[in-house]
# Entry
Amino acid sequence: NVSKLQPTWIFDTGDFSDGSLYPSRSAFETTPLVVDGVMYLSTSFHRLFALDAETGDVLWQFDPKFDRTIRANLLLSRGVAYWSDGAKRRILLGDQMGRLFSVDAATGEPDRSFGTGGLLDLKKGITDKFPRTPYGLTSPVTVCRDTILTGAWVADGEPQGPAGDIRGFDVRTGA
# Structure
């Protein structure tokens, strides 16, 4: 019956770079996350979409204003993470600029109680001595209970640079 399968819906994020307009090419490598009938996915320019999983209709989108002029081997995001305590539901989106966003899963609005207005600067205290060396997230963070665990994307061709150490942050505050 595989030959009889047909697409139910198609969604185009519109986020693509072949290297002609922006200095880096992009790759769509996200793994969508479906929670309670909503599909969450991130794009190669780190935009976050919430789609109705049955219809593909856009429920909301969050644009972190990612700097598309960043030079990288590839612009990509491999996905997002989800956290809930039963009352609050959050989507956690990291980007290649070293930022981590906590976004309300129902509205797409930043969680103002997290970090600074919904944003946690992961570069702070890590890249101070290496301001031009790449540091960021390409893969989703991991959430264990109320702790966000992050690694980092670092330049592996640099003789010295920021460490890609695994760190833990409070999921409610970013502390």
User: Anything to note?
Assistant: The longest strand covers residues 89-94. The chain has no helices and 13 strands.
